[in-house]
Structure formats: structure tokens, C-alpha cells
Amino acid sequence: MINNRAVAFWFIGTLCIFFGALIAGNVEPEALGATMESAILAYIIAFILILIGGMFWITTAIVHVEEY
Fold it and tell me: pLDDT tens for residues 49-66?
């Protein structure tokens, strides 16, 4: 059986990791108008999004293991 909550958590985790990687990959501290603080903030936000995505994936894995 397909658990809708597990699929939703997997999808949300995928989006969080995608946007975290997207932000981290596009940070350019040397860009015109960018400060060191804004670059650090972007890296922190990207890191938090990747951690949250990982937590969603781990939750999905735990639900999957408990079902079978």
C-alpha cells in the first residue's frame, strides 16, 4: 500500500534539498551589491533547507521500515 503521508514527506524533502542546493550553487559573494553578510545568510539558509529535507527523507525511511 502507498502511504500518502510518506509520499508527501518524500516530495517536500526533495523540494527542500533542491532549493537548498539551488541557493548554495548560485551564491556569488563578488556580485555587485552583495555583502559578505548576505552571502553568509544565503549559505545558512541553504544549509538549513538541506537539513530539513534530510529530516523529511529520514522520516519517510522510518515510516517505510516500520510498515514492512
Answer: 999 999 999 999 988 887
